[in-house]
Amino acid sequence: MKLITRHSPLAIHFGSLDTRLLQLKQGPTGWSVSAAEVVPGSGRTRHTGAAEKLAPFVQSRQTRGKDCLLSTSGEELSVSLVPVDPQNRTRMQQTLKETALRSITDAEGVAYRYLSLNESTEEEIALANAREELLLIAVGQSELRRCSTALETMHLRPVSFEAAAFPLARTMQALSTDQEDPWGFLHLGMRHSLFGIMHGGEVRFLKTMQLNGERLMSTLEKALSRFEDADPDSVSRMLTGLQDEEEGEGEGHIVVDAAAVASVQQKAIGHGTEVLHALRLEAEALAQEVRACLRHFANRHRGARLQDLKLAGFGAALPEVGTALENALALPTSIAQPFTELGISAPEEVLADQHQWCIPLGLAMRSVS
Amino acid sequence: MKTVDFLPPSHFDTHLERRRTPRRLAILGAFLVICGVATLTMKLEAGHQLNLAEQAEAPNAEETLAGQELSKLYQEMNDYVNRLDPLADHLRMPALGGDLAELAGAVGEFVQIEKIEWKHDTRRKGLNKIESAEVHLDITALVRGDRNLIELPRRLQEYTGFREAFIDDNTELVQDMRDTVRATIRLRTPLLLPGFDKPKMHNEVNKP
Known about the structure:
The structure holds 2 protein chains of 2 kinds. Chain A is of the alpha/beta class. Chain A has 13 helices and 13 strands.
């Protein structure tokens, strides 16, 4: 008998394209989604816009509780691997601080956290006089403030502000509990992408990658424009929105939505080979990056090999992306379907793009798993 | 799984503590339910006992009827009381069956019992008043030797527990038996009759 509250805390992820709110509920038949909401919005004012749109939803008691687990888009964070040699261990803190300040530019300051990626404990590393590898993650204080202010607007209480990679890794870990060998995950966000390697239930490697959803969409747009019957209105509309935002004219007006992606997917039907060919170069570039990461990981972990790769994020479900990456990486690659695989009942709209709900789901699972 | 959290760890620890609160409430609720059930049980038991006590105190038709029948029975018995009382009195008299069984051994050697007489002796004053009452036990026996004869009343008194024992004057010699006499030992003890507070013996003049 579990005598704790049946609702998970609220999970809010301020993504680069939209803000997602998720709450789980435990019932006799297992977990289910009790609240799920997506609010479009991008740019630095997306927090305020999302808060204004989500506040009625929260205040109408469609959610339970005030505790909220937060994360923000990976593009607002800086992820760095910092090797620390034994002789430099005494000035490690100084090195980390300098690296964090270099990686983020924010007038209000920079907050940073780090954790060791080594499987050995700090004492074992010190005894072995080995090089320690630290994962440094930094975020601007202004981003923290914007997130906190948005929550205050919704009368919610922030209890955690995790770097997006960790809730994502938590979700992926829940899908791979029985895997003993290292496995990887690739989050293809709109403006950023992250590649991580998990082993023993912990993040052992994390790196920001060059390929992202925006580049994939651009490539698709070019590929689709070659076909006469393809009218890439939705893609153009999306790219227009992106350009507007880049120029600072239309913050919060990105128009990439489910309909646009569905339109692209519709237009790609029947042109799989061509799309695959168009994505080949991007996939190959990504594969080179991933292979470099794997070489590094193998050197650090006695030749360990990746068992498989799970995809998540906006770009994961774009036409033929999974196949292109699988071909390039020569690794079993699958798009994450966390709700289906974990048996969490969810509304149709959530099940339709489960790969984009991995981060909110990982946030919600932090205090219930 | 280790994570990177930009808020202080105390925030999340406090959140976990808050999530346990319903569990605490549930435990407290369960305790209250147990207390409530115990209280209710005690209340029901107290009510049950009160009901039993009230029923015990209340007039009982069967009991009343039985009482009436018993009274009627006593009333009918009163008609036979004159015949039943002497019988009851007689049954209450002391019996000597136990003493007689071992009497032959108690008299000792060289004593041959010939006759035993036993009776209740009551002296009345007037028609109804009983002045004194005794139990008389007279044992006639052939006794050899003077010393044996002299000690016989004491032995019989010790054996029977009677208050008095003496040799009757009518002692006679026995033909062809030297040093042997036929004597009667008389034993007396007070008899507590029904209706008396204490036993009272006769005021005899001819006792030794």
